[in-house]
Amino acid sequence: MVSNKVEKALNEQIKIEAESSQFYLAMASWAETKGLNGTALFLYQHADEERMHMLKLVKFVNERGGHAIIPALDQPPVEFENIQNVFQNLLDHEVFVTTSINKVVDICLGEKDYPTHNFMQWYVAEQIEEEALARTMMDKINMIGTDKGGLYLFDRDLENLSATPIDAGV
Ligand code: OFO
Question: What are the structural domain ranges in the chain?
Fold first, then answer.
């Protein structure tokens, strides 16, 4: 059974994962309209992964005798300045998510809720990977700068990378 405090923290995290999914979906749609098909594919998949992160939490909360609340979501941005701006937003957002997950872990320890603490370790590990991936993307994008040929190759690489099916561990 989860305590009220842990249940509240998990429900807040459900909202953050859902918002992440919407945010990346908005980025994907923007990229697709700019002809950046590889980038769009990568972001569509990333949006799906975030939805899986949300679902995994929903199921866990209900399994542990709580009630997972499906939240209302804010409208994500429609326009992005450029591809640099998209990946900077992605990196900043992942850093924000990591902070939020660490807070949930902290609450679990405070409440001596070891099963939820154990469950949250999957998210801790996932964030290490996601932040690293977002940083690598940002480094590449910074290296390319305004070089159109470089951008073309970057987008094509993302298309190949995204051909691998996702595994969100649900
Ligand atoms: Fe990329 O964040 Fe979920 O956990």
Answer: 4-72+79-162
What tens digit of pLDDT does each residue of 26-52 get?
999 999 999 999 999 999 999 999 999
Cα–Cα distance, 8 to 6 (Å, whole number): 5
Ligand 1 pocket member 94 (CB < 6 A): yes
Establish whether residue 53 lines the binding site of ligand 1, counting it when its CB lies within 6 angstroms of any ligand atom: yes
Domain 4-72+79-162 has CATH 1.10.3720.10: no
Ligand 1 atom with the smallest distance to the CA of 101 is 4
| Nearest protein Cα to ligand 1, atom 1 | 94
The neighbour count for residue 79, using CB atoms within 10 Å, is: 8
